[in-house]
Amino acid sequence: MESSKKARWSVGDSFEAVIEKVAHGGHFIVRHEGAVFFVRHGIPGEKCRIVITSTGSSFNRADVIEVLEPSIDRVPAPCEYAHRSGCGGCDFQHISLTRQRQLKADVITEQFARIAKMEIYVEVEEVSGPLHWRTRSIATTNSVGELGFYGARSHTVVPIKDCLITVDEMNMKELAGRKWKPDVRVEIATSTMKERNIALAPKRGEGKARLTEGVPVLHEKVAGKILEVSQDSFWQSHVKAPEILTNAVLDFAQLQRGEHVLDLYGGVGLFTSAMADVVGSDGSIVLIEGSKSATGDAARNFVDNSQVKILTGDVAKHLPQVNSAHVVVLDPPREGAGKVVLAQISRLAPRAVVYVACDPAALARDTGYFSELGYSLTKIKAFDLFPMTHHVECVALFNPA
Q1: Is there a single domain that holds both residue 36 and residue 124?
Q2: Band of the pLDDT at 322, cuts 50, 70, 90?
Q3: Which residue of 118, 271, 278, 397 is surrounded by the most CB atoms within 10 Å?
Q4: Model-level pTM?
């Protein structure tokens, strides 16, 4: 009976229902006549009219098209493109800031309960206002050279006149007013030193971006130090993220002079730059990073730090060469570190592991793996480094059980 109800739903069908709870990925759960729907643009507790946008064997996708009984946390979106047919980026603009952070905390709790089988609660800390925080942006042009962003789950480019979450130094209003080459990816970056560069790349595929404006290497000032960051090297997108995450890592690691540290997925050396002073010349840091561009930057950033060793390549392949570490810091990509890397870390028996994560589901999974390897989650912090979106950044501390 249930399967027949699911089968009868079609794209474009609509119905009324109450939004249940937030789900990982920024969607909201609705159950209606035996079917499960992942819905955009809702808030838990709201009664809405919902239209189906796609169907599947286990769940369906849908959008809110009319709010019949709004939540007290529903607010007007500041951006004119924050709607179901607009830009797919800022999916929480219709929600009050306090509720945004609560929903992100709910997702962290739910992911740890479901994946790691742990009961945790963490408050998501506010770090800035909701607008003008983003220092890195990837836009796209349409077939006539208008600058914009993709719509949600779409290859359609939505042209824009401005982007309210980007920093003023990016000057998106001016960039949006230009005529660009059609069908290209536009990578824009700014730095704390008021620099800006722009690179163009093919709209689809993995083609290398070509610098078209600005300096090829930006300079980022963090805690009194200046780090070089090439156009194609990773850097945190929130203007305050480097300082906030560095402080959290140092607080959790409690490094001592003379200790040996691993900085995995270390990029251009954000965390290494702070840790090198603490461990001193009689300590050591091994930074491992897969990006040749980033390790090239790191080599310049630490040319005068003889205690820093830089390795380029797959973290999992380099780790077997390492024999000891008092502390391990890792900031893996969104998919997390995984069982192989965590097993290599546990082999080294560090006294502390500090894990920086941009996806709570991957962190919860890796927490489960770590538990099997004899390491327990002892502290966790969460920061709202992506306001107006469903994304959240966590920093976790693991110690031997």
Answers
A1: no
A2: very high
A3: 271
A4: 0.95
